Amino acid sequence: IWLPIGLLMSVLIALVLLRVLHRLQSPRAQLQDAIHSREITVFYQPIVALGNGRMVGAEALARWQQKDGSWLAPDSFIPLAQHSGLIPQLTHLVVETVFETLGPWLQRHPEHHISINLEPSDLLNPALPALLARLLELWQLSPSQIALEITERGFADPAVSGPAIATLREAGHAIYIDDFGTGYCSLSYLQNLDVDIIKIDKSFVDALEFKTVTPHIIEMAKALRLAMVAEGIETEGQLQWLTRYGVEYGQGWLYSKALPAEEFVRWAENNLRGA
Ligand code: C2E
Ligand code: MG
Ligand code: MG
Ligand code: MG
To answer: Locate the EAL domain: which residues (predicted)?
Structure first.
């Protein structure tokens, strides 16, 4: 009788030890595990034409599902990924997830796009253009359906970013400057950049009441003949102000938060039906 009880006890102790060890894992190991086991997934926030509220595309935003079912926002794990060299794996997962979950939807909507956030270090990864090309071919999608968002930091060293960005644009991807206005890009500097769209950072949309810098940022984009997407639109007042100043596109809680893929598809179908 004691033998089976002893065995059972050892198994139980082993299980408890495993759990404790898991808790003791370094943050890097936890993130790596989460990437491999796909606890990190992608939500989608609609981007609309401000004039008529019709969706033109969506931004892919990474989310980490916790054991208790809650979702962790990227600001809390992107920096960890940066410091621990996990950006290539994270970006790979996000790109694959976008195609796997929205490939069929994108096939049905050839005029719509998904934009994916890249880190400056992604531009140094030669495997990324190849991955994008392979998945576009596999799903029979146009490169114009996948846009790439890069923050101003990504343009800081043109000798590094220039060729990588040129490769992506030549492949047919639109390049967005993300969080525009928060970095150090000057007008003269921007003139020489190969980009398609400027995303006006949420902080400038929040500060609309003060109307000091935001008009200058908008004028800058217009002078460069670049289309604009305003981030973080929450109120009707912000929407009216942005439209008056000629900002064409936007995203924000006024329209929708970032949604899980299935909910996003429902939202999009309703929006496109004009509901
Ligand atoms: P971002 O690219 O500037 O994305 C916009 C952020 O603003 C998102 O935060 C979005 O949820 C939030 N937002 C949009 N509309 C509103 C609004 O009306 N009100 C408020 N309060 N917030 C709004 P999120 O998803 O937490 O992402 C934060 C940042 O993390 C992103 O900023 C992006 O830089 C980065 N990020 C997200 N996903 C990825 C990813 O897959 N890869 C990389 N490298 N970075 C990512
Ligand atoms: Mg972005
Ligand atoms: Mg942004
Ligand atoms: Mg941002």
So the answer is: 24-272
